[in-house]
Amino acid sequence: MLKDSRAGMADIYRGLSSWRTWSMLAWNDVRGRYRRSGLGQFWLTLSMAATIFGMGFVYARLFALNVSTYLPYITVTFVAWGIISTVVVESCNALSENEHMLRQLPLPRSLFACRVIARNLIVAAHNVLLIPVVFIWFHVGINANILWIVLGLGLLVVNAFWIAYLLSIICARYRDVPQIVSSVMQVIFFVTPVIYLPAQLAQRGVTLLKWNPFANLLEIVRDPILGAVPSSWALLSCATMAIVGLAMVVPFAGHYAPRVVYWL
């Protein structure tokens, strides 16, 4: 156990130290997706804008909500949910899609988890441009509570790292898991307050929502931007999840990560 933990920590340290490599790979991933395109990466922003405005006006009417309140909410939520859901889904193929690199170079396995997270943060940086536009349009102000976003993003990235690292190893061994994860994330989308407000749920629904880890991750990023302080429950649960997740994935990776090349 101790030997596996040391090996896992060494791999994580090497992966984080190789930030120039995974940041360059992440930039290339985003640029390559829209190569020879006139607008380039800003097609990401236009696609997200179409989704937000289309669903925003429709669901505001369905839920009988004020558009000036609902659209800023769904804009922030979709940007945050895009990071969470895409990292989870794409991490399933983080190692298998880089088979050629892993077979030729002694690269740390955690590097590819970092690559997935960095790639999605770059995408989010493009999409976040929609938030000030919507806020200005609907006269939504910001306050000092937005500073909580630093802690929220930090906890989100840490949790995204251990989840991506764990799933990348498991999915390299069991190729059916990516399809399972993709299907589960579609269900989680509907049980997480992405297209609806938590206040719309009955009291029992709000209580159950507290035990949804994705809802808590969403809250610690969404609420500071909307001018509210995340609940102590959400912050504590995300911090606990980060500590427990890292404690679990370090020995797991130390034991199984070296075998990945034989599974590819």
Q: How many separate domains?
A: 1
Unreliable segments of 5+ consecutive residues? none
Helix content: over 70%
Q: Compute the gyration radius: what is it?
A: 19 Å
Mean pLDDT equals 90
Distance between the termini: 25 Å
Individual helix count:
13
- Give me the secondary-structure category: mainly alpha
Order of helices and strands: HHHHHHHHHHHHH
The major β-sheet equals: none
Shape: globular
Q: How many DSSP E strands?
A: 0
Could you tell me the strand content as a percent range?
A: under 5%
What are its keywords?
single chain, 264 residues, mainly alpha, 13 helices, globular
Notes on the structure:
With 264 residues, this protein is an all-alpha fold. The protein has one domain. The chain contains 13 helices and no strands. Helix 4 packs antiparallel against helix 6, helix 4 packs antiparallel against helix 7 and helix 11 packs across helix 12. It is globular and about 55 Å long.
Topology of this protein?
Blueprint: H1 2-17, H2 19-33, H3 42-62, H4 67-91, H5 99-104, H6 110-127, H7 130-137, H8 148-173, H9 177-191, H10 203-209, H11 213-225, H12 232-256, H13 260-263
Helix pairs in contact: 1-6, 1-12, 2-6, 3-4, 4-6, 4-7, 4-8, 4-11, 6-8, 8-11, 8-12, 11-12
